[in-house]
Amino acid sequence: MSLTRKEMGVLEELLVADGSVVSTEDLLERVWDENADPFTRMVTVTIARLRRKLGSPDLIETVVGSGYRLP
User: Fold this and answer.
1) pLDDT of residue 35
2) Backbone angles phi, psi at 67, to 5 degrees
3) What is the pTM of this model?
């Protein structure tokens, strides 16, 4: 399995959070940059690609209204 730089960055941020929720805004700021459009769906798209690549069971949990975490 091969991950893109952005996919790897998102996964690393979730791993470093150690079970805590990481917001979409934090991911945009840390993995993309401070100039990233806050209304972009890039985080959602990247999470979806990661989920497909990581397979089942789903390792990335969506916390509605807050962000994402690795349980």
Assistant:
1) 77
2) 150, -140
3) 0.88
